[in-house]
Amino acid sequence: MRFLPAALIALLISSLPAGAAAPLNVWQLTAAATVGNVVAEIDLAGAYFDGQGVTPDRVAAYSWMLRAAQAGSPDAQTQLAEMLLSGYGHPPDGGEAIAWLVTATDQDYGPAEARLGDVYFYGLAGHTDWTRAIAPYRAASGKRIASAEVNLAEIDQCTCGPGNHSEALRLLHDAADQNYAPAFTRLGETYQDGTLGVPHDNAAGVAWFQKAAAQNEPEALYRIGLSYENGWGVDPDAGKALASYLKAADLGEVDADYRAGIFYSLGVGVPKDPNEAERLWRIAAVGGVPDAEEAIGQLYFQGKSPGHSQADGVAWLERAGRSGRGDAYVFLAEWFSMMRQEDRAYDYAVLASRSRDRQAAEDGVAMMDTIMSIKRRAGLEPPLDTAEPGATLPAMGSPRAIAAQ
Fold it and tell me: What φ, ψ does residue 73 adopt, rounded to 5°?
């Protein structure tokens, strides 16, 4: 192995500032990283991650970041945890990611505290645990990390009793003071929904949403669309509602795809276009919007989409039912009962009866009684309560990729 002259190594290392690497080429970064300069190790990992000056190499990026993390850099430890969560350069390992984040939080490193809170808040390591998210979020909020403040406010809103939300409101306003778009959105929801002890004020809610929309915050654009569609704090305007929905949809807000699809299906504010409605609904359905799952299921079931069978429709309607749309189960129960397939109809009626949707649950119970009466009159055995019928849908890729198919 060839070694660099000591004077050259010293020159390379001295050229790397403590906070961020100077614009060196990859050879210089490698030379400095090889002798243990932590900043160079982090920047070299970034070069391999982004493919800057080298061919992208996930394993090399992970390896250099690991070296920097092992050297004690909380920044590297936090970035390494992100790689472990996403499976970048190393098989996904939520437990190891948490361990590195805890190591970084032990150094009072705010970004690690915020990310550790995220792991528990969003269930990034396998399960959601808001109780465990509170402590790291509080530590990060003490450093005015806006994302932690917004999520901590949501935890407070869901766990505190009525009239005990002053801290949540303070956190949201502090994050908003930092021009953090999601904080604007949460404040807009607070005013439109009349939560956290603030008076219901649709116009104030729209004003907050517009602040967030100026930064292309998808959820705020969706809420502006709802406001124009329903006349909440603004004059009803179908054209503005659709424009806001479409912009939100382009930014990945799948609920907006569903709402925009309704406009195209009915010809509201735009010429009627069933094909565009189906495309938008399919994006939303693949993205997990229950109403869209039911809408696309109805399209396929009724034979209104060439190339898709009634069985495809049943699969989507079952998926909608599992997502909480109990009326999808009611529809299937009624249909199969009409087709004299009482056993299958009864299965769907049972599922509807278990729905959190009260009307669907009542309809499901009524269907069960009706089917049992039909069976008895025919002198047949009453149907059994069996497992959930139907096949599940395979993984289908991202909503945007589906739209291109």
Answer: -75, 120
- 357 within 8 A of 325, measured Cβ to Cβ: yes
Q: Quick one: which of 240, 167, 152 has its CA closest to 197? A: 167
pTM, full prediction: 0.82
Alpha-helical regions (H) of 231-271: 238-250, 254-266
pLDDT digits (tens, 9 = 90+) for 47-101: 999 998 899 999 999 999 999 999 999 999 999 999 999 999 999 999 999 999 9
- What secondary structure does DSSP assign to 82-123, as a single string? HHHHHTSSS---HHHHHHHHHHHHTTT-HHHHHHHHHHHHHT
pLDDT in tens, 139-156: 999 999 999 999 999 998
Tokens for 84, please give them. 């472990």
